[in-house]
Specification:
It is a single chain. About 65% of the residues lie in helices and about 0% in strands. By secondary structure, the protein is mainly alpha-helical. The protein has one domain (about 5-115).
Length: about 130
Amino acid sequence: MLEESTAKKLSPAAARRLRREMKTVRVMIGMYCHDCHGSRRGRLCADCQQLWEYARRRVAHCRFRDDKPTCAKCPIHCYRPDRRERIRQVMRHAGPRMIWRHPLLAIYHLLDGRRKPPASTTPTRS
């Protein structure tokens, strides 16, 4: 899920956290697609597959690297407005259901959401 070149540039803890974040996003999109578009579990419709690919690319190229907060707390919103609204719909639908279907991912997502965003909009280069 996390591109190999991106994972090499991160600390092991940050790479693990980003892989978990990407898994959480993939699970949430899958839940939304299954519940709202009638797709089979584990499969995504074409629209949701495009959203997943877009989200994966955005997170893989995040300029904050090790200091990356959850996207909701990020001072720079790299999603296009239409995609951002789409991911919000997915989160609004899947978020409350995560605690029942994927409790560990939900807890980690909540804990990651408590991370402080970077102090400035110009991250340090590593």
